[in-house]
Amino acid sequence: MIHVQTEPPPSYKNSIAISPIKNASRFEWFLEKATELGVTEIVPLQCRRTEKISLKTDRVKNILLSALLQSRQCRLPVLHEPVPFENFVAAQKEEQHLQKFIAHCRDEENKPGLGLLKKKESSLILIGPEGDFTKEEIEFALKNNFVAVSLGATRLRTETAGVAAAVLLTAQ
After folding, report:
1. Local mean pLDDT, 10-residue blocks, the chain (172 residues)
2. Which of 25, 32, 59, 139 is the most buried (most CB within 10 A)?
3. In whole angstroms, what separates CA 114 from the centre of its chain?
4. Sequential DSSP letters for 8-73
């Protein structure tokens, strides 16, 4: 006898928009860990300092599927096509029921941690490329209702910041 159990879709999304990095294996490591942690949506962002934007689609899908099976989950995260930073951020303006954050390394302000995250609500965090977001990109996100946040006291590599954000978003 086969037992089938259905799992309702989550009532909220945990989304990470992140710039791909030069080292493909490190970005693939991020995709694997984000999937294992339960991130529901991943958007590759093409920022001004992004050095590599192409992804090997078949390889990436296999990595996501393997991570899904390893973590015993039933839903793959939605992996979007790469999108320019400004287009993506501007498109989020109408999302009223979405917590929107941008993690960056600039020290111009005292940024709160993701402790201000409301539990069980849809959330999106932007993670920049190697070299961080430009000042103009940060200002653009803030003007579009994103909140600047810190991921801790140390400066993290892009893929590590992505995993740290995934942990904080999915620990709801």
Report:
1. 77 91 91 93 94 83 89 88 95 80 81 71 92 95 92 89 91 71
2. 32
3. 13
4. PPPSS-EEEEE---S-HHHHHHHHHHHHHHT--EEEEEE-TT-------HHHHHHHHHHHHHHTT-
Q: Which two tokens stand for residue 44?
A: 């590759």
Measured between alpha carbons, how far is 22 from 18 in angstroms, rounded to an integer? 13
Please give the pLDDT value at position 138: 95
Fill in the DSSP letter of residue 97.
T
Enter the DSSP assignment of 102. Answer: E
Amino acid (one-letter) located at 83: V
Sorted by sequence, the CB contacts under 8 Å of residue 22 that are 6+ apart come out as 51, 52, 130
Q: What fold is seen in the domain 16-170?
A: Alpha/beta knot (3.40.1280)
User: Are 19 and 45 contacting, i.e. CB atoms less than 8 angstroms apart?
Assistant: yes
